[in-house]
Specification:
The protein has 4 helices and 4 strands; from the N terminus they run βααβααββ. By secondary structure, the protein is α+β, with helices and mostly antiparallel strands. Strands 2-1-4-3 form a 4-stranded antiparallel beta sheet. Helix 3 packs antiparallel against helix 4.
């Protein structure tokens, strides 16, 4: 078991493009479907695998290119240390003062360590100065607990 880190920051309006944050359905729309439905399916099928947008279901990060991985660790504590470093780095930009609290940041890291040790994933999101958004995700891999059919994006 190991853990992959993902980070995304960008305009909240882009984060809200939910269609690009879902993998395409396994079957395309029938040929007699409305042209705009067929076109939208093609756009999503093309964009999702390469988009850096965080997927709605965290496990789907495993379908994204390995280049989007910000780090990989075998130990939960090491992955949580990455999370601590990112929270410390971005905390001055958090839109809400309460989220900058060192106690709150420590609580996030402690909870993340426990969750990763148990084989779970960690996903945190924060509004930054408007209109930006920060998404931090740690995915436990090999195999993924809820999506074992998703392969590790890194070559073995």
């Amino acid at each position: 078991m190991h853990h992959h880190a993902y980070l995304w920051t960008g305009p909240k309006s882009r984060f809200d493009q939910e269609a690009l944050r879902r993998p395409p359905r396994p079957d395309p729309p029938p040929p007699d479907s409305r042209p705009e439905l067929i076109q939208r399916y093609r756009e999503v099928a093309t964009a999702f695998p390469t988009s850096d947008l965080p997927p709605l279901e965290p496990a789907y990060w495993l379908l994204k290119p390995p280049a989007l991985i910000h780090g990989t660790w075998n130990e939960a504590k090491a992955a949580a240390a990455w999370l601590h470093d990112r929270l410390t780095e971005y905390a001055p930009r958090f839109a809400t003062e309460a989220y900058r609290s060192p106690d709150r940041l420590t609580a996030h890291v402690t909870a993340a360590t426990e969750r990763l040790t148990a084989g779970g994933d960690v996903t945190l999101g924060f509004y930054l100065e408007r209109p930006a958004y920060l998404s931090l995700t740690l995915i436990t891999c090999s195999p993924h607990r809820t999506r074992p059919e998703l392969c590790c994006p890194l070559p073995s």
